[in-house]
Amino acid sequence: MDPALVKRWHAESGELVELLALARERLGGVAAVRLGAGPTVLITDPQAVQHVLAQHPDRYVKRSHRARLLVGDGVLSATGDAWKQQRRLLQSQFTGTGMRRYEQRIAGAVETCAERWAGYARTGQRFDLAEEMRRFALDSIWRSLTGHPVDAATEAELASVDNLVGALPTLPADAVEVPPVVAAELARLDAVARLAIEAARHGAGPDGPGLLHVLLAAAAERPEYTDRLIRDELVTLLFAGHETTANTLTWLHLLLDRHPAAREQVLAAGPEGSAERREAVQALVHETLRLYPSAWMLPRHATADDTVAGYAIAAGTDVLVCPYLTHRDPELWPDPEHFDPTRFTTPGARPAVTGGYLPFGLGPRACLGLQFALRETTALLERLLPAHAVAFDAAPTKAAYGITVRPDGPTAATLG
User: Fold this and answer.
1) Given pLDDT bands bounded at 50, 70 and 90, which one contains residue 174?
2) pTM of the predicted model, to two decimals?
3) φ, ψ for residue 274 (rounded to 5)?
4) Structural domain of residue 121, as residue ranges?
5) CATH number at residue 102
6) 278 has a pLDDT exceeding 80
7) Three-state secondary structure along 79-137?
8) 39 FRET partner, CA 20 to 30 A, in 84, 195, 255, 371?
9) Half-sphere exposure of residue 373: CA atoms within 13 angstroms, side-chain side
């Protein structure tokens, strides 16, 4: 890409996503971009995405994850054989039979949130929508991890996760030493993790054993599951299990605020509890994830020379797979900036190629919690959408691109 253009972007402190969007527009779905000292290639073409993430993950590997200071050696940042073993242990918990054991816990979190919202509706109380979605998602994953609903003290301490997610993008990717304020937040998080691990050692919660008990059982047979690794997996599941879900639900309500007819379409799709209603709710979630995918950027590093869609990729190249831009490709998604949940209910309205829609990634390193996230968002929306319409005071119109994509601004709201 034109070095002068990159230089101007740096000078104007532009968003990285703006530069990458320009690269895709000018150079196509496989685009060379000079971002630092070494070569970088942006991948947005769906077949190239599939090549990198699904067909040849051994040639395109993860290196140091930006969240490593937070999640340590958890499954999100682990590599090689360690990652394979950790992934294998957790995989069964998030598919089929494994997911069914968490449905009642999700339902409990849904009811707790619904009760709060009923109170807001009665009193007309103003609340922060993003904070509400964070509280729900945190309660849902905490119940699934520990067997306990999240209590007020734990919830307050786990605010450190959000604080750290906001701080990490400002630190160097390979940072070892961190500012005192970040170190203090990490210490808060570690203290919560230690208490949860000790409580789990003394028995299950009122909802029965959770994911944390699965990790402790593994530690009894596998020496690599030290207290530190259990802490890292716990924090990984906390971060991945509530941050992305909260963001999705926040974006979804902001989109409904701009497109109120979409809510009416969901409610008209079928009676409460019907398959038609559920399909319409899930389409709403999928269209939100198209515009604001959980993983908006998937960095990889080429370990060997390769050819992708006819372009040579040299060993040592940094590769950026960008679902955010793939989902906004007009050749794949007509009128891509338009919010239209019927893309996911109308035959032929979405790309047939696998790499055209990947909000949770693709291939062996796709997000473990995909089914969990879809079930909890669907369950909450089936409960809340018929009862309440959210009205924002002044909805944010921009996004902040960090580890995740967040609304850039406050989300004060009331319920109609």
Assistant:
1) low
2) 0.92
3) -80, 160
4) 3-415
5) 1.10.630.10
6) yes
7) CHHHHHHHHHHHHHHHCCHHHHCCHHHHHHHHHHHHHHHHHHHHHCCCEEHHHHHHHHH
8) 84
9) 26
